[in-house]
What we know:
Largest sheet: 7 strands, antiparallel
Number of domains: 1
Radius of gyration: 15 Å
Shape: globular
CATH topology: Lipocalin
Number of strands: 7
Number of helices: 1
CATH class: Mainly Beta
CATH architecture: Beta Barrel
Strand order of the largest sheet: 1-2-3-4-5-6-7
Distance between the termini: 37 Å
Structural class: mainly beta
Amino acid sequence: xxxxxxxxxxxxxxxxxxxxxxxxxxxxxxxxxxxxxxxxxxxxxxxxxxxxxxxxxxxxxxxxxxxxxxxxxxxxxxxxxxxxxxxxxxxxxxxxxxxxxxxxxxxx
Length: 108
């Protein structure tokens, strides 16, 4: 299920929001929001996506992944309680990488 994530990191703690279009049940075709909470340890990334609770069947998804060498992608596995799982790939939008590098250089 594709989604757009807005993620920020502060001292290895991740936070953010996501938006996606529901694909089943009463939420089919409706924009659904969620929050992200997680951590980064070197290249290992874990986070929990918590839906806003307004749509039945949309609760939470756990993600575990790894950043690539230039931090432009995270690849890994997702899990939904009850035994559902699969792989995921998050790709940083072009331009966001340059902005992140500029912000990091300004802090140094």
